[in-house]
Amino acid sequence: MTPIFGRVSLLRHMVGKPDCSADKIEKSLGHIEWLISRYIQRATTLLDIARVTTGHLKFDPVLVNVCPLIREIAESVRPLAEHAGSTLDLQLQPEGLTILGDRLSLEQIIDNLISNAVKYGGGTPILITATADFKNDTAVICVRDNGPGIAPADQSRIFERFERAVRPGEQVTGFGVGLWIVRQLTEAMGGAITVYSEPGMGSAFTITMPLQLAKDTK
Fold first, then answer.
1. 187: number of CA atoms within 13 Å, CB side?
2. E strand or H helix at 50, and its extent?
3. Which of 134, 138, 144, 191 has the fewest CB atoms found within 10 Å of its own CB?
């Protein structure tokens, strides 16, 4: 909370001064918004860790229309992506992509993957796709960046708790549990997560979930 209070205090001192412009206020408010968002994400992560490690994962299965949910999450992450210099390109199946799962957990999964692409993508374009694989009766969600990629030796361990694929000298924030939580939530809903990456060629994280053929969605 200290960085948030510090930025608010700075903004208060800034307002009313001759050199205080609307642009400066807007930038300062944007930074405060980012700090609050990061604080909420960390608090949510700690709650997720507690739920998983104590075996208290509880789901409220409903029919979820995947594509509108992805659009909603992408719009919430877009300001952070623009700040990092990344664009979000959504290529989603028009309709009928429905799964039976916990909406909040699915939201956490997608939000984590997109946020990670922004965080580690190095300001490169991010592609988000959602399609139906009718042959295997699965919904397929993929988040792809064009960042530095992940070495083959690191691709399995990044799904473990407190593990990250960080290059020498690279400084990143967080607990190193995001992908571990994503895997736990995905598998608990009957799905799977995979990663395809080559150093220097970006990374693609793919979620597959059992597809539901239903007329009514929530």
1. 10
2. helix 22-53
3. 134
